[in-house]
Amino acid sequence: MVVYRCWECDAAVTRPVTKLTDETLLQEGESVMQLAEMGAGEPDYVPEGYYLESPDDSPIPRADGWPLLNPEDMVETTLDMEVYCGCCGPDGGQGPNTDCRNGHKIGIERGDCWTVHSVALDPKAIYQE
Ligand SMILES: [Zn+2]
What we know:
Elements: E1 4-6, E2 18-19, H1 29-37, E3 50-52, E4 68-69, E5 78-79, E6 98-99, E7 105-110, E8 118-121, E9 126-128
Parallel strand pairs: 2-3
Antiparallel strand pairs: 1-9, 3-4, 4-8, 5-6, 6-7, 7-8
């Protein structure tokens, strides 16, 4: 298991998470949209407790190659309301919108009603421990 930490201040930004190796656990494309349309909500891209390392094709804009996590596994992070955009949640379209507890930008959360729910961590802003 690993914990991701802020590169600038060493604050933990995630719970301990396990590398996801079974990609059939990912919620993709149509199944996510069906969940959203059924009002099932919370179409999490990555299951809780896991991280997906460096996906080539990220469901979060401009985050290809960034590790992906479940929003529930984030610890003491906050959304930056200056770059917040979305209707029921952040759509992540404005770039990095997630700060560590000391206000350093560490990634992009996407969790609107029409998107997957996931967090991409900026590889230049975090490290694994
Ligand atoms: Zn920090």
